[in-house]
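Please review the protein record below. Let me know how this chain folds according to its tokens.
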Amino acid sequence: MQRSFIAKNPSVLIFLAILALFTLLVTVMSEGFGVGGISTSFIKTLGKTLCLCLIALAMDVIWGYTGILSLGHFAFFGLGGYMIGMWLMYERTRLIVVDSLAQAEIPPTDGEVIDAIGNQIFGVVGSSEFPLIWAFADSLVIQLILVVLFPGLLALVFGWLAFRSRVTGVYLSILTQAMTLALALYLFQNDSGLRGNNGLSGLQNLPGVTASQDFVSLWFFWASAAALGGGYVLCAWLVSGKFGSVLRAIRDNEARVRFLGYSVEMYKLVIFTLTACIAAIAGALYYPQAGIINPAEIAPIASIYLAVWVAIGGRGRLYGAVIGAAFVSLLSTWFTGGQAPDINLGFYTIKWVDWWLVLLGLSFVLVTLFAPKGIGGLIDLYTDRRSPSRHGADLGPNDGALREQEASQ
């Protein structure tokens, strides 16, 4: 009898249980609903960390399981943030404009309201007209669809052009990085329609919501936890069946998979597009908690950091990607937030704010050389040492094979 997905992947239940327990603990300790042991700012940090864990899952599937080192997935992450950020900024500005114009003796026309909103949003870049890309910014439903649709279409077009040309290895990595750089440079321009270097700000304020940030931060934290749980189940399902076996085969020997009759390009295109959509969802949840998004967030260095997180956690292991992203993200917050004490050597003072990136790069080199399985390898070490529980089952393929009980005598 064929076992169920959960039976074949008990780690999924373990992960979901740990995530649920963590979410409950943070909720109880929060300022909004609990005893106030965790500040609202740290709740936002934890929520953003969960979003980074979600994009790390996507990176692990495309790199650890398929063998495609994409240095462009943070571009999809940023595009997801821009799509939801457009609605947040438009709707918040609209409410402010309507409230201010309501005090006028003559009620404003719809055109005057639109002009005032455009002037408020785009006045910083010397414009007052809405670009075409903002055509649906007034609709939350459409913008939520675009969170997945726009990055997905970009990944689909880019992947189709790259994979049909059979670009592989380091050349594909360079192409993805070039795509990210081109997108970032375009967004830096004032005429890009997304306010250039100023980006979109004030995203932490939900339009029409009067609740304090204590509660809003918890809502986003819950949404991030739910997205991470759903993303983990989806990724585990993708890599556990026949589809996952083909992905691993492509990673190990692409030519042989193609020789066996599989459409390698189609498998690559599907997984590249799907992981781009997952990254976009993570970005749509991340930036309302960060409060601002600008083109610097899409810089190629961000995607390189993402690869470092997955490598440190242990690529080819979904839980490794989550561990790596959470570990590095929280450690980065501690070092760069001024919480790590400086070390005075007498002749020189080590300030971790300046040395954090050096420490991160050194960690990546050491993990690559001496611990290629990453932090997740510690879990593998524990599970490998446990004796198999076969309960007297045959130790060979035949019914008459030596049994476990006989072998132990």
Summary: Residues 73-101 form the longest helix (29 residues). Residues 67 and 251 are 4 Å apart (CA to CA). The chain is about 65% helix and 0% strand.
